[in-house]
Amino acid sequence: MRLVLASASPARLATLRSAGVEPRVVVSAVDEPAVVATARAAYGDLEPADVALLLARAKCEDVSSRDDLADCVVLGCDSVLEMDGRDYGKPGDADTATERWRAMRGREGVLHTGHWLIDEREDSTGATFGVTCSTVVHFADLSDAEINAYVATGEPLSVAGGFTVDGLGGAYVTGIEGDFHNVVGVSLTTLRDMLAQLDVAWHELWSAPHG
């Protein structure tokens, strides 16, 4: 069985590869802010966990609709950090990342990762469904100098919540309650359980073709 990863995240790809899975990567063209804005206009306020699942679904559906994909299962993922009831995605710029870390330091947040699957295999039922996995993350009480140095590396600008646990930001995470891989960007146990609902055993992915 071939797994297609609808994500540009190098951390998600590395996590899957470290677990013996070599997916085909097809990056979606989803305008994330526009998707969230449209949903909020239609349904009102969204819970942070729902935002993660909404974006994971949008990415998955965008990629699965392409004509060059066949006989595969498509996985879309998206992560957001929840603090004080609000969802935080990628900071995008240094000022936002700095402000974010000044609010996060010495505190805890919940990292939500939405996972969405679409079954595009031949003779499949075309199943489409999603699950959100959530993990509590505890942050160190960084000094202003530490925040400025970290932001200057550029790493926190393009990752959900403005931090990594598997990169330079790992030294600033003091504890995790839940799934480590979920914080990196894809919960392997969640994905395994989802694939089982499609009658796909995890070990079947170990020899999945690439390309």
From TrEMBL:
One Gene Ontology biological process: nucleotide metabolic process
Keyword Phosphoprotein assigned: no
Subcellular location: Cytoplasm
Any Pfam family the entry gives: Maf
Obligatory cofactor(s): a divalent metal cation
GO cellular component, one term: cytoplasm
The protein's Enzyme Commission number: 3.6.1.9
Enzyme category, top tier: hydrolase
Keywords of the record: Cytoplasm, Hydrolase, Nucleotide metabolism
Xref: InterPro entries: ITPase-like_fam (IPR029001), Maf-like (IPR003697)
Positions annotated as active site in the UniProt record: 78
An annotated Gene Ontology molecular function: nucleoside triphosphate diphosphatase activity
Gene3D superfamilies, per the entry: 3.90.950.10
Bilayer-spanning residue ranges: none
Record keyword Cytoplasm present: yes
Annotated catalysed reactions: a ribonucleoside 5'-triphosphate + H2O = a ribonucleoside 5'-phosphate + diphosphate + H(+); a 2'-deoxyribonucleoside 5'-triphosphate + H2O = a 2'-deoxyribonucleoside 5'-phosphate + diphosphate + H(+)
Cross-referenced NCBIfam families: maf
PANTHER family: BIFUNCTIONAL DTTP/UTP PYROPHOSPHATASE/METHYLTRANSFERASE PROTEIN-RELATED, BIFUNCTIONAL DTTP_UTP PYROPHOSPHATASE_METHYLTRANSFERASE PROTEIN-RELATED
Function summary: Nucleoside triphosphate pyrophosphatase. May have a dual role in cell division arrest and in preventing the incorporation of modified nucleotides into cellular nucleic acids.
Family: Belongs to the Maf family.
Protein name: Nucleoside triphosphate pyrophosphatase
Originating species: Allobranchiibius huperziae
